[in-house]
Amino acid sequence: MTNPFEEWRRDLEAAGELTPDVVGRLVDVHGDRGQRAIEAVSEGRVKEYRDFVVVVGHREEYVVEGDGCTCKDAEYNLDPADPTERCWHALAAVIADAIDATEYHDMWYSEVREFL
Predict the structure, then answer these.
(1) Which residue has the higher pLDDT, 112 or 6?
(2) What is the DSSP string of 42-61?
(3) Buried-exposed string 19-42: b where 16+ CB fall within 10 A, e elsewhere
(4) DSSP letter assigned to residue 108
(5) Is 40 in a helix, a strand, or coil?
């Protein structure tokens, strides 16, 4: 049996775009985190480097690896055992990947961080 996260993700990948149905279910499952993730994707704030996917927040950048993220929300507020609980950065990475909206940079993020 699939969970609500897997359901909207599967449908998003099949559609290849954010349809009203998928957006509605995503926001139903994830609330404000889902809405913020959609905004980040639509604003082009999901970057893929050779080593990491990075989501640009309003104050800093967050590294997303698999289901995890370096943000405080993921660290303190979410249950890692619950697949529906993800921070908006991790959700944005999933959405951008599914609809091919990730901005790719052919460089290592660790090298980019040296300049920031």
Answers:
(1) 6
(2) HTT-EEE-SS-EEEE-SSSE
(3) eeebbebbbebbeebbebbbebbe
(4) -
(5) helix
pTM over 0.70: yes
CA 102 to chain centre: 10
pLDDT tens for 50-66 read 999 999 998 899 999 98
H/E segment holding residue 68: strand 68-69
Amino acid sitting at position 104: Y
Structure tokens given for 97: 């990947």
Contact 90, 68 (CB under 8 A): yes
